[in-house]
C-alpha cells in the first residue's frame, strides 16, 4: 500500500547538535508538510511544500529548516537543537487533485533534546 | 490566517452514551472541514469530513454537522465504545492557501466501560 514513512522513529540528542528527520512517501502526492505535536497544543505547522521548487514557512518555523530533495522526499533539520524542541514530529502529504485536501500522516518521530 | 478553536479539551463518557466535540473557525470562505482521530501512539487519520455545500454527513456511528452562518462544525459520536477513546482533531483550510490547514488543539475522549 502507498504510504508515508519517517526515519528515525525515535531520537535522543543533546543541546546544540544538528538533527535531520526524514520523510518519504509512495502516494504520489505533490504536497508535503512537517508538523510538531505537543500535549494540549494540537498539530502546529512548521514548513510545507507544494512541489519540489516551492517551500513555505508555517506558523513555527524558527529554529528549523527543510529540504525537498524530490517529490517523494521532504527532510526537516534542526541546525542546533534545544530542549524546547523536544516533541513528536509528523510528516504529512496531500494531493492537490482532491478538493478536500485530506492529509495523510506518517507514523511520527519522537525527538528528545537533552 | 485561519483561527480554529476546539472544545472541550477533554471529554469522558460512559460506554453507550453520545459524545459531541465542537470547533469554531474564523475564515468565512473555508469550504472543507475534516475530523482526524489519533489513537494512543498512532498517527492521526481522517475519520469524516464535510464540505460547505452540505449541513450534515453521517457514517455509521459518527456524524459531522456544519453551521456556516455561525462558523462552527461539530463531531457527533453515538453509542460510544471503548475503542472510540482517542484524541480527535478538527481542521479548517486557509482561504488564501487552501492546501494549508489549521488544526484545533485536540479533544481527548475517554469512553468508560
Annotate the secondary structure layout.
The complex is a heterodimer of chains A (114) and B (113).
Chain A: E1 4-7, E2 10-13, E3 19-25, E4 31-37, E5 43-51, E6 54-57, E7 65-70, E8 73-78, E9 87-94, E10 104-105, E11 109-113
Parallel strand pairs in A: 2-11
Antiparallel strand pairs in A: 1-3, 3-8, 4-5, 4-9, 5-6, 7-8, 9-10, 9-11
Chain B: E1 4-7, E2 10-14, E3 19-25, E4 32-38, E5 45-51, E6 56-59, E7 62-67, E8 72-77, E9 86-94, E10 97-103, E11 107-112
Straight-line N-to-C gap of chain B: 41 Å
> Into which percentage range does the β-strand content of chain B fall?
over 45%
Compute the average pLDDT of chain A.
Answer: 93
Class by alpha and beta content of chain B? mainly beta
| Beta strands of chain A, count | 11
| Mean residue pLDDT of chain B | 92
Order of helical and strand elements of chain A:
EEEEEEEEEEE
Q: How helical, in percent, are the residues of chain B?
A: under 10%
Low-confidence stretches of chain A: none
What structural keywords apply?
heterodimer, A: 114 residues, mainly beta, seven-stranded mixed beta sheet, 54% strand, B: mainly beta
Could you walk me through the main structural features you see in this protein, from its secondary elements to its overall organization?
The complex is a heterodimer of chains A (about 110) and B (about 110). Chain A has strands spanning about 5, 10-15, 20-25, 30-35, 45-50, 55, 65-70, 75-80, 85-95, 105, 110-114. With about 110 residues, chain A is an all-beta fold. The model of chain A has no long low-confidence stretch (mean pLDDT about 95). With about 110 residues, chain B is mostly beta strands. Helices cover about 0% and strands about 60% of the residues of chain B. Chain B has no helices and eleven strands. In chain B, a hairpin with a 2-residue loop joins β9 (about 85-95) and β10. Chain B is globular, with a radius of gyration of 14 Å. The termini of chain B are far apart. The model of chain B has no long low-confidence stretch (mean pLDDT about 90).
Amino acid at each position: 500500500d502507498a504510504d508515508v514513512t519517517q526515519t528515525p522513529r525515535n531520537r535522543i540528542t543533546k543541546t546544540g547538535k544538528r538533527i535531520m528527520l526524514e520523510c518519504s512517501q509512495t502516494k504520489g502526492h505533490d504536497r508535503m508538510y512537517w508538523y510538531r505535536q505537543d500535549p494540549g497544543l494540537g498539530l502546529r505547522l512548521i514548513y510545507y511544500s507544494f512541489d519540489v521548487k516551492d517551500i513555505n514557512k508555517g506558523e513555527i518555523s524558527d529554529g528549523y529548516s527543510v529540504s525537498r530533495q524530490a517529490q517523494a522526499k521532504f527532510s526537516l533539520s534542526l541546525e542546533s537543537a534545544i530542549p524546547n524542541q523536544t516533541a513528536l514530529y509528523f510528516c504529512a502529504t496531500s494531493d492537490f487533485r482532491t478538493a478536500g485536501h485530506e492529509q495523510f500522516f506518517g507514523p511520527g518521530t519522537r525527538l528528545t533534546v537533552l | 490566517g485561519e483561527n480554529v478553536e476546539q472544545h472541550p479539551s477533554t471529554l469522558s463518557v460512559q460506554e453507550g452514551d453520545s459524545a459531541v466535540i465542537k470547533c469554531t473557525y474564523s475564515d468565512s470562505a473555508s469550504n472543507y472541514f475534516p475530523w482526524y482521530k489519533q489513537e494512543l501512539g498512532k498517527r492521526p487519520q481522517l475519520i469524516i469530513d464535510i464540505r460547505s455545500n452540505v449541513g450534515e454527513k453521517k457514517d455509521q456511528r459518527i456524524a459531522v454537522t456544519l453551521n456556516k452562518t455561525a462558523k462552527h462544525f461539530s463531531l457527533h459520536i453515538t453509542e460510544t465504545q471503548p475503542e472510540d477513546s482517542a484524541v480527535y482533531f478538527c481542521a479548517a483550510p486557509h482561504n488564501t492557501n487552501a492546501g494549508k490547514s489549521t488544526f484545533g488543539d485536540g479533544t481527548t475522549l475517554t469512553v468508560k466501560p
